[in-house]
Amino acid sequence: MITMNTHYAQLENSYLFYHIAQKTNAYLQTHSGTHLYRMGIGDVSQPLCGAVIQALHEAVDDQARKETFHGYMPECGAPFLRERIAAHYAQRGVTLDADEVFASGGASDELGDILDLFDTRSAAMVIEPAYPAYVDANVMAGRHIVHVSSGRENGFLPQPDASLQADILYICSPNNPTGAVFNRAQLQAWVDFANRRGAIILFDAAYEAFIEDETLPHSIFEMDGARTCAIEICSLSKTAGFTGTRMGYTVIPKALERNGMRIHDMWVRNRTTKTNGISYILQKGGAAVFTAQGQEQIHAQIQIYKQNAKTLTNALDRIGLWYCGGKNAPYIWMQCPDGMDSWTFFDFLLQKIQVVGTPGAGFGQCGEGYFRFSTFGDPDETAQAARRLVELFR
Ligand code: PLP
User: Fold this and answer.
1) 79-110 pLDDT, tens digit each
2) Most buried among 4, 229, 284, 378, using CB within 10 Å?
3) Cis amide bond preceding 129, omega within 30
């Protein structure tokens, strides 16, 4: 008889957002017709910007004509996209070869797929509270997980410690769920640690476009020595509203080697075997994000989410609840009032004011007692949720 991957049995039986959906659906069944203010899941509310839509339309038309039709695309990404992204990094002072950029179908896919490159005996460090997929993808592979806790005492930005025994180091900055962002010195310390140890950093930069403090790094490759210890995984989901369109990119420097193997070559081998590339249409849409017009338009949308963040943080300031994030990141991470645990606070907000957020405990044990608000909602909905919060605590 076939033997299944029994590591799946070790997964928590309910994925965080699935559990939230179950609870909200149960509430709606007993309160039919009630409107919910959804500040929970990190899906965007603004449509794709004009430059992207135009590029997508033109690409569809290209596919209708023999002279401009594209069949299979290069597995690692179209040169026009890879060159645009490399040029975008160059504007920030990071020099990349275009073929160090790989087109992807989104950061989630990459965060899971890239684990193919590492032995299952390598240990993965996850800084908690954390995006749940890091832990789950490694549990599925049977990998040992080193949970590193963070909290208010270190601004949710822990530093490496010589006793840390891990080989794959997840770093998400700006962070989901806490909104914390590593500064240059703090990120440099992780790069130095990874190089000393021979570990590899998986740098999740899904929210880099939300950084407004110019002293903070957007890319790990702004740090000295990162080319020999890091992979950067990026997404257009939150940057440019691609959650339902699906595109991202991954940067793997050619200088990154372990056990005499070049990680870049391994990933080319992986992609050329396991994928047939991202569609021409999507890559055209993705490339439009990196034009001057695309950048201007996506930053105008990001401002809408930043205004939502201000609306919510103003409400929390009025109530007098502790929070962080919401400035260089699209998430606000607040402490639950009166020592409430995070699922109790979830139920409290759902029952009392029909506002849905995300319980901090879903991001790891040290997230208990905290709660996450997403700023990706519709501005009117967010304003109403903020008003309801203030009234509830008056
Ligand atoms: N990484 C982080 C930290 C995220 O929060 C998310 C989505 O919420 C992703 C990756 C996944 O992004 P994508 O939509 O590109 O799969």
Assistant:
1) 999 999 999 999 999 999 999 999 999 999 99
2) 229
3) yes
The whole-angstrom separation of Cα 181 and Cα 176 is: 10
158 touches 24 (CB < 8 A): no
Banded pLDDT at 14 (limits 50, 70, 90)? low
The CB of 128 under 6 Å from ligand 1? The reply is no
Q: At what angle do helices 280-289 and 50-62 cross, to 10 degrees?
A: 150
* Own/partner pairs, 155-164, CB within 8 angstroms, 24+ separation: 155/180, 155/324, 156/129, 156/180, 156/324, 156/333, 157/181, 157/182, 157/186, 158/127, 159/186, 159/189, 159/190, 160/189, 160/190, 160/193, 164/125, 164/193, 164/197
* Cα(130) to centroid(ligand 1), Å: 11
CA distance 59 to 314: 43
Residue nearest to atom 2 of ligand 1 (CA): 206
